[in-house]
Automatic annotation (TrEMBL):
SMART domains: IG, IGv. Keywords: Disulfide bond, Glycoprotein, Immunoglobulin domain, Membrane, Signal, Transmembrane, Transmembrane helix. GO terms for cellular component: plasma membrane. Residues 9-134 form the Ig-like domain. Belongs to the myelin P0 protein family. GO terms for biological process: cell-cell adhesion. Its main location: membrane. Residues 1-19 form the signal peptide. The lineage of its organism: Eukaryota, Metazoa, Chordata, Craniata, Vertebrata. This is Myelin protein zero-like protein 2.
Length: 188
């Protein structure tokens, strides 16, 4: 009975505490010299308010210490020094549970893992979202490009079909008009 009395408040505290869930794309490939949006969204049981904080960090692929990228608390705070100074901008919307950033002018040494940590009190626990960025010379052919090519081809095919049908109808009406004109000329 004594043990149960001690466990009830502990279980109640665990029941009321929820974790922030983070969602990222996992892996991103981008071309050297371009800009990339590092997408990070979250879900929280607590309403988003002024207590929300977002921290972005970076760990190089070849190892080394974790580096600060970006911080958000009511307003975005860009780094004042370091590799990301003047190269990162806030692109999130906390009301839509989006805490994404844009990294400008990618360089090959930007290869690595970017982490997105969100705290929305009382939801402060949860896993950190991670994005593995690969900066490359050219982007490889992927499913997205295949999908875009398929949709573009289907649209082009539909346009061609519409043009053929319209031209067919136009020439058919023209041919009927010529026949009707001949019939009228014969009757006269």
């Amino acid at each position: 009975h004594f043990l149960l009395t001690l466990l009830i408040p502990f279980i109640a505290a665990l029941w009321l505490t929820e974790a922030v869930e983070i969602y990222t794309s996992g892996a991103v490939e981008a071309v050297n010299g371009t800009d990339v949006r590092l997408k990070c969204t979250f879900s929280s049981f607590a309403p988003v308010g002024n207590a929300l904080t977002v921290t972005w960090n970076f760990r190089p692929r070849d190892g080394g210490p974790e580096q600060f990228v970006f911080y958000y608390h009511v307003d975005p705070f860009q780094p004042m020094s370091g590799r990301f100074k003047d190269r990162v901008v806030w692109d999130g919307n906390p009301e839509r549970y989006d805490v994404s950033i844009i990294l400008w002018k990618l360089q090959f040494d930007d290869n690595g893992t970017y982490t997105c940590q969100v705290k929305n009190p009382p939801d402060v626990d949860g896993l950190v979202g991670a994005i593995r960025l690969s900066v490359v010379h050219t982007v490889q052919f992927s499913e997205i490009y295949f999908l875009a090519l398929a949709i573009g081809s289907a649209c082009a095919l539909m346009v061609i079909i519409v043009i053929v049908v319209v031209l067919f109808q136009h020439f058919r009406k023209k041919r009927w008009a010529e026949r009707a004109h001949k019939v009228v000329a014969i009757k006269l």
